[in-house]
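Q: Is it fine to ask for two folds in a single conversation?
A: Yes, each is treated on its own. Send the first.
Q: Here.
A: Result:
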Amino acid sequence: MVLDHTKGEYTMTTTAQQWGNSLGVRIPQKIAQQHNVVKGAELEVVSSEDGILFKPVKKKPTLEELLAQCTGENPHEEFFNEPMGREKL
């Protein structure tokens, strides 16, 4: 594996191997960790004129997942905590 210090990129050579009716390649642990790729992670495969690009799929969290992060320890003040505009009338 080679590190390009100017870009912070790792380069390596690997061999495609038969995996059922498809081909598979191994991702070095250092590169997987750098991009938070773990066992079972979804990767988008992009084919272009430059070659094949693997990108981790970034899922948008569901409302339930976001609400699960809210606890009594992290409440926020109301945005409109004082009367504004014509409501003072």
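Q: Second one now.
A: Result:
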Amino acid sequence: MQCARHPDTETGLACGRCDTPICPKCLVMTDVGARCPTCAPARKLPQFELSPLLLARAAAAAAVSGVVLGVLWGTLLSGGFGFFSIFVGMGIGWAVSEPVSLATNRKTGTPLQIVAALGVALAFLVRNIVDSNAIIVTGDITGYIAVIVGVVVAINRLR
């Protein structure tokens, strides 16, 4: 028997649903056995499925953690730390992405990465308001480095 998609490949496999001959290249393993690509379900992994409710919970978690961390960052850690601002950014990235992950039952994906990155940016803006009564502070290189590192950490945690 020849594969339906690769006529030059001989096979002994067939789709469990439509009995189309399939080779190991075409084979899609499902919960109920081997299927051809046409019969196999084409749905996302549950880890990446995100309902509007979960997205709203993620946004709320990012907003709350961003505001709280921004206030803490502005009051307790005001002033530049030079090289150590990288570690501040790493902590903020983790501290924003963890509540986002918990609020969505440990789901991952691009929408959650964007939400967490916006939460880190919100923490930076709140920190600027608390620390210097301005939304954007010019010449704050260590703050910019910290927020970039925080965004990278948050995105990588939710990948």
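Q: Anything structural to flag on that second result?
A: Two points. Helices lie at 52-76, 85-103, 110-132, 141-157. DSSP finds four helices and four strands in the chain.
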